[in-house]
Write a structure and sequence with these properties.
With about 50 residues, this protein is an all-alpha fold. It has one domain. Helices cover about 30% and strands about 0% of the residues. The longest helix has 10 residues.
Length: about 50
């Protein structure tokens, strides 16, 4: 999403904002945002030393 925004394409960000406007509502067209991140995108390191 960030790489697209840097190139001037804000559509993915605008979709995310739309989803976050109603976070507890079922939104059929935005199912991709209802799943946990793919394994390679999961971050399990903290930066505060804990």
């Amino acid at each position: 999403m960030i790489d697209k925004a840097v190139k001037g394409n804000f559509k993915p960000f605008e979709k995310l904002v739309k989803v976050l406007e109603q976070p507890f509502e079922e939104q059929e067209h935005y199912g991709i945002y209802q799943h946990p991140p793919k394994h390679k995108l999961q971050c399990y390191k903290t930066y505060c030393g804990t």
